[in-house]
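Subject: mismatched residue count in predicted assembly?

I count 975 residues in my input, but I want to confirm that the predicted structure covers every chain. Input:
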Amino acid sequence: MPSPTKNPHLPFGDQRSAPWYGKDIISVKQFSRSDLEYIFGVAHEMRVMVERVGTFDLLKGKILASIFYEPSTRTSSSFIAAMERLGGNVININEVRYSSVAKGESLPDTIKTLECYADVIVIRHPELGSAAKAAEAAHKPVINAGDGVGEHPTQALLDAFTIREELGRMDDLTVTMLGDLKYGRTVHSLSRLLSLYNSRLHYVSPEILRMPPEIIAELEAKGMRQTEHRTLDQALPETDVLYVTRVQRERFESEEVYESVKSAYVLDKNIMSAAKSKMIVMHPLPRVTEISTDFDDDPRAAYFRQMEYGLYVRMALLAMVLGKA
Amino acid sequence: MPSPTKNPHLPFGDQRSAPWYGKDIISVKQFSRSDLEYIFGVAHEMRVMVERVGTFDLLKGKILASIFYEPSTRTSSSFIAAMERLGGNVININEVRYSSVAKGESLPDTIKTLECYADVIVIRHPELGSAAKAAEAAHKPVINAGDGVGEHPTQALLDAFTIREELGRMDDLTVTMLGDLKYGRTVHSLSRLLSLYNSRLHYVSPEILRMPPEIIAELEAKGMRQTEHRTLDQALPETDVLYVTRVQRERFESEEVYESVKSAYVLDKNIMSAAKSKMIVMHPLPRVTEISTDFDDDPRAAYFRQMEYGLYVRMALLAMVLGKA
Amino acid sequence: MPSPTKNPHLPFGDQRSAPWYGKDIISVKQFSRSDLEYIFGVAHEMRVMVERVGTFDLLKGKILASIFYEPSTRTSSSFIAAMERLGGNVININEVRYSSVAKGESLPDTIKTLECYADVIVIRHPELGSAAKAAEAAHKPVINAGDGVGEHPTQALLDAFTIREELGRMDDLTVTMLGDLKYGRTVHSLSRLLSLYNSRLHYVSPEILRMPPEIIAELEAKGMRQTEHRTLDQALPETDVLYVTRVQRERFESEEVYESVKSAYVLDKNIMSAAKSKMIVMHPLPRVTEISTDFDDDPRAAYFRQMEYGLYVRMALLAMVLGKA
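Triage response: the counts match. Full output below for your records.
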């Protein structure tokens, strides 16, 4: 378990009362509905500030140590930009395979070293539970940037924030998740966050890539309305948010089976003519063929804006755990 | 084609009138003589400012995303230093082989993601035309840091700026290019920039590494006086600028042929005694054996100063496309 | 030999009188006792400032080029953090195997290029003597971050500074070095620094990993009291500083020999019950099994604080050679 409050550097001491000061960000399960409202409020302020002045010195003098045990240029770049737009600095460690780790150092020892230099730590690690383990070792706040089949809470928060900013609300929405719902970490986390609101979910996937029954049961218990489909046509017309994920060839037993289903999970301009005019299409990116580029100029294509919302959410989280928001 | 004007972040809006605001830097072909004068003027101001105060906050709050699909420590470091000396920040991406690209992401998608975080993008890519492709995808300005056998316009600009700063003019100069003129991207680009001025060119190379006929024809059409040589002795005494490039062993059919010609393309103190006392020797670096280190202390050895001029040119370009010069 | 005084950027010129302005930091042999006192004084000021305000802009506008020819995340991160906490910027080059060096560039040429962009250079290189070679080529100050079997002077300085900050003095101390004293570069350098003070040294190691006779002779000549042991039990009770290093399996002729000795060089809570209550345990890290994690919470466990002292020492050195302390 991450410790409840830690001790990032606080020269003047007066921000200790900030509600998220010294907290770790490890799992979507740690957020209540009011937590989300708070985060979205700060992230929205960040958006306004960036649009108005580009960067500002809220975290001037703070250092983020970003350690990625597996590469993720997108997430890594987003955290670096977030820290830099707040006037802070970054120690960026990507080459973990060459580092002390290669000499047999344990994760807690590595984290204890990094926190000698930095005020906050962002970690990406292939092993489930590693972020919580890092948080336990650290006296400075730790943010989970993905721990294998575990969680990627900042992705889930940016997905939810995208919906909130684009559609103005999280309640009374019909959200359709398309593609690989079995292995897709992002759809699992997002559906958990949506269960804090009064929405409904459509799951559209091949039989072998269905949303896991335990997640369906978990959300069912929270009163979420959920419906499963094999094709998009029934759900699409009433969809407010279409969340597309990639269906990977490797998931299928044979090329034939893959070829027979894949076209049902590829979006293009033509298919989208059956959707509402006011709705959004999201994608965690990278996108390969599952959304045709001919749809990119459609105002409903929100997937690149989604990356930008990610910047604001990560700015908000960094400011919050450092006692500055 | 790069779009003519883009939209980097402009909080106060008043720099939109800056002549280079929002432009891409893709090819030397996009510059007129007056463009060069403008760039050299700004680069000279940068030089004065760096010499006087080291760094200044002209680009404070701006973020450069520098993405190198193939490594080039020299060029990458130069752009990073340029941005930092202007008070801006950098997202530095070198490990492209591990990034989303490895997951099949297209260049336009990668660029569209990066511009969510950054105000300007520098790209190095092994494929001809990739910088223009990136520029087309981006809403923020893109600077080409080399696209394979294509162009490396900031190298050509720094070469020209070196001549201008060291000799005080670009007209009425005798420029001698030595070594591999067939594959040397830098000599092709520099000769194109020189064709905007009233100078003359000597080409000194082995038969198999001659300046390509189509470039000779192109410059001929612009009125450039050009002469080809196999050895340096005739051209050297009247040379104002000697631009040395590396003759690579791999270009020759056999070790014997290589050994028979290579000494004609190696410069040392002794050979340089036949040159003027006021002239400069340039080299794009890295240098291997083609200039003897015994010449390094000669005031005419301009190749390390050339690197420093590169810093000023890149500072100028970054400031210009961000509407700050 | 490193040149005595160099010329980092000094806009207002008045710091030239600073005693360490423009100096290289290459070897522990260059420090007198009063030099150490000066460094420790500045490092202590850095500690106070970081604890009070986190970062400050002493080196604002200065650029550090950090070039690591072999990876060392810990040392590299420490220098980056040091520069950033002083308000400076960093050009961080880790991927040397892909750089100009791979194209055959000499170390002096690489250094001469880097100093076009930066105000100070930190270099890590696998070859003995490479840091001095770099310093000789450079007009800007060079700091050795480890040159193979040569030296790692900033590690030795941080080790000494740790003792000074934790125990308040460097004289009248009993320092016990445990483990691999033959190949351990850190214990060689630290013992040399300690020889400037009036302390005594215990060496505890397997027969085949004894402190080299030439170092013993060198310190003997300086009046250092030194005693060798095979086990810790005799020395431990009077030890003020226990410096633990790793005994690597590869050093032994067979698994059996290694297994028979290794337990004598592993520290745990139980063994430490025989030590004073006011003493410290140090380790250069990474630690593998040679200190049990059950000892980490003991106040005498100074090895993570040691990393933090390293930050202050490196801040001090950077400020000093740039004429700002």
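Residues 186 and 232 of chain A are 19 Å apart (CA to CA). Marking this ticket as 'not a bug'.
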